[in-house]
Structures are given as structure tokens and as C-alpha cells.
Write a structure and sequence with these properties.
Aspartate Aminotransferase, domain 1, single chain, alpha/beta, 3-stranded antiparallel beta sheet, 12 strands, 14 helices, 7-stranded mixed beta sheet, 2 domains
Length: about 400
């Protein structure tokens, strides 16, 4: 008799989130007394705005929020999400086309589960957020990496996508602004990619969670606004975590065609049922309340963006393109590899990240978590003083 595996092969194959792993290691070292500065986690350092917190306090006192509610989300929140989708993504949808999820990560997972059959291929512009390939594999899909380096501003082209397309290609993943690079596709680039996807009858999953965090007058146009004909083959993923400093509240959503949303809603009814009602009420306040705090946070991110790019680009061997969105920089560090630093000669960005942590007490996420080696991701969603000190440490280490 063949020995049965103790746990499933599907689960055994999953890797721990690299960003959370590095952040956890940094926090453990800090708790042990090391003066660690971490650029690892994509998490705003701001408190959730007070009016949102107050809405949650009021909701917690209302017994109706102590009960189960519709698995797809509170009706009034779904209406508010539909309104935001029209306002920011240029797509008119009904509330019935919205599912509220436990953070954007669940929306990503459900989108792939809804669309993919075994062997279906997903084109994944690379560098990518570390969860995408794992979520694709959990749906028995096949991630196909399409790499664009710093020389392309980390933006893939239609020609690259076409070269990677096969008869098994079913889905294009489109992310703008990008995690990990902060790159934003121009309206023209977005339209060209959208028209190509539409012409080839591809589904599109577009992660728009950073769409409200852009700089220098740049707007991250939604692919469904650029190419309205894609609306019946596109799932939009979003949430309140990044824009409103609500990472711990766990409220995201997916928006899409009726058949896809119905399928995803059936999945969620068995997977998790409804999101916390108190968190949903807080998210409703966020979307419908004053946006002053959002703009203040965006301006702070913009200031930090300029400072970290300027500081890193003073280091010989580091090339840091200026991101136009999100709150990450993605330095090309190939110029530091193969050289000796404090008696250590790193040959990969993974080895370089270990060196930086050990010799400078600075935590960064190596490029291997997001695609090819030779890069690191650094979030500038941390305090101004910590950001400046971390960059100064790197300048001393590699000076």
C-alpha cells in the first residue's frame, strides 16, 4: 500500500509570504534588542483616521452587527464600493456585482479560484507581488512570468505579453500601481495592453488596491476605463487597507461580471461567510466620509518617496527608478553583487539582504520573492526619521 502524504501536496508546496517572513524576523530581532529599521512590510505607519474608528465603535455597540449578515457583504457597503468603482475606475456596476472579502488577499485568491481550471495559464508581469503565483497554483493554474527590468521602468509591453501567450493562456494579471515596484502604466500603455487582451479573448484580473496612491499628477487609469469592452471579462480587486491605513481591519472586495461574482460568492459562502460587520461599517465610513486624511497621508508618502530615491541613488551600485505610485521603491542592486562588503561577497540579492540585515540592522525584501534576483523591495510607509536613518546606514555600509 502506498504511503499517504501527511498533508496535501498542494499545501506542502506553498511558500510562506516572503514579505511577512522578513518583517517577522525584523520584529523578532528588534524585540531582542537590535536597533532594526524595517522596510519590509507594506503597511502605512499612520493610525486609521479617527472618524473611521468612531464608526466602528458605534457599530460594535449595535446588536445587529453581532449577527451573521449576507456572505457577499453589507448591502450599503456594496453600494458604496460600486460608487467608488465608478468614481475611480470609470466602470458602472451594480451592488450585486460586488463581493466584500477579508482583505484584498482573499479577493485575489477567490478571483483565481473562480476563473482557473487545471493547466490554465496566467500571464504575470514580473516583478510581482509574492502572493500572486501561490494563489494561481492553489487554483491549479500555471503562472507565466513576463519580466520587465529597471531599464523598462518595470513595465511590460504588448510584445512581451504576446510572446508569452500560448493556447493555454486564459488570464492576464494587470497591476498598476505595482507592488513591489511602484510602477504605473500610462493611459496609452494601459489601453494598448487592454486592447490586446480583448482581441485575444483573455480574462483580466486587475489589482487596483494602490490606485489612489499616485504622485506627480499621475493617474492610474483602470484597464476597464481604458478599454470598456473588457468589462465583461475583468475582475477588479481592491480594498481599504493601503489608502486608509486599515491593514488590520481586513476589508477588501472584488468586482466583476455577474457570473463570475456569483461563482465567487458561492465559494465565499463556504469559505468564510461574511466579513466582520464592525470592519465593514468602518470601511463604509472610509469610503463615504471626508478624504482629508487620505490626502495628508498621500502627501507624506510623496515626501518620503522623493527622499528615499534621492538617498539610495547616492550609493554607487544602486539604481532606483522613481516610482509613480504605491509606497515602494525597487532598487536594482546588481552593481553591489560580486563585491566584498565587510568580508562578505554576496552574489544574489538574497545574500545581499542578509548582509544588510546583519551589518546595518536594516531589513529589506530580496528580489527573489518577486521574481529574478538582483533587486530589493523597500517600503517607504514608515516614519520619516526611521527612513532617513535606514538610508544613512546603507550609505555608510556601501560607501
Amino acid at each position: 500500500m502506498t504511503e499517504r502524504a501527511r498533508i496535501s501536496h498542494r499545501i506542502s508546496a506553498i511558500s510562506e509570504s516572503a514579505t511577512l517572513k522578513v518583517d517577522a524576523k525584523a520584529k523578532a530581532l528588534k524585540a531582542a534588542g537590535r536597533p532594526i529599521i524595517s522596510y519590509a512590510a507594506g503597511e502605512p505607519d499612520f493610525a486609521t483616521p479617527d472618524f473611521i474608528v468612531e464608526a466602528a465603535v458605534v457599530a460594535a455597540r449595535d446588536p445587529k452587527n453581532h449577527r451573521y449578515t449576507p456572505a457577499a457583504g453589507l448591502p450599503e457597503l456594496r453600494e458604496a464600493i460600486a460608487a467608488k468603482t465608478l468614481r475611480d475606475s470609470g466602470l458602472e456596476v451594480q451592488a450585486s456585482q460586488v463581493i466584500v472579502t477579508n482583505g484584498g488577499k482573499q479577493a485575489v485568491y477567490q478571483a483565481f479560484q473562480t476563473l482557473l481550471d487545471p493547466g490554465d495559464e496566467v500571464l504575470v508581469p514580473t516583478p510581482f507581488w509574492t502572493t500572486y503565483p501561490e494563489a494561481i497554483a492553489l487554483a491549479d493554474g500555471v503562472p507565466v512570468e513576463v519580466f520587465a527590468g529597471s531599464d523598462q521602468g518595470y513595465l511590460v509591453t504588448v510584445e512581451q505579453l504576446e510572446a508569452a501567450r500560448t493556447p493555454h493562456t486564459k488570464v492576464l494579471l494587470f497591476v498598476s500601481p505595482s507592488n513591489p515596484t511602484g510602477a504605473v502604466y500610462s493611459p496609452e500603455q494601459t489601453a494598448a495592453i487592454g486592447e490586446w487582451a480583448e482581441a485575444n479573448d483573455l480574462w483580466v484580473i486587475t489589482d487596483e488596491i494602490y490606485q489612489n496612491l499616485t504622485y506627480d499628477g499621475v493617474r492610474a487609469i483602470s484597464i476597464v476605463e481604458a478599454v470598456p469592452a473588457l468589462a465583461d471579462r475583468t475582475i477588479l480587486v481592491n480594498g481599504v487597507a493601503k489608502t486608509y491605513a486599515m491593514t488590520g481591519w481586513r476589508v477588501g472586495w472584488m468586482v466583476g461580471p455577474a457570473d463570475a461574482v456569483k461563482g465567487a460568492a458561492n465559494l465565499q459562502s463556504h469559505l468564510s461567510s461574511n466579513v466582520s460587520n464592525v470592519s465593514q461599517r468602518a470601511a463604509l465610513a472610509a469610503l463615504t466620509g471626508p478624504q482629508t486624511a487620505v490626502e495628508e497621508m498621500r502627501q507624506a508618502f510623496d515626501r518620503r518617496r522623493k527622499n528615499i530615491v534621492a538617498g539610495l541613488n547616492q550609493i554607487s551600485g544602486i539604481l532606483t527608478p522613481t516610482p509613480e505610485g504605491a509606497f515602494y521603491v525597487y532598487p536594482d542592486v546588481t552593481g553591489l553583487l560580486g563585491r566584498s562588503w565587510g568580508g562578505v561577497t554576496p552574489t544574489t540579492s538574497l545574500e545581499l539582504a542578509d548582509l544588510i540585515l546583519e551589518q546595518a540592522d536594516v531589513a529589506v525584501v530580496p528580489g527573489e520573492a518577486f521574481g529574478p534576483s538582483g533587486f530589493v523591495r523597500m517600503s517607504y510607509a514608515l516614519g520619516d526619521d526611521a527612513l532617513a536613518e535606514g538610508v544613512a546606514r546603507l550609505q555608510r555600509l556601501f560607501g
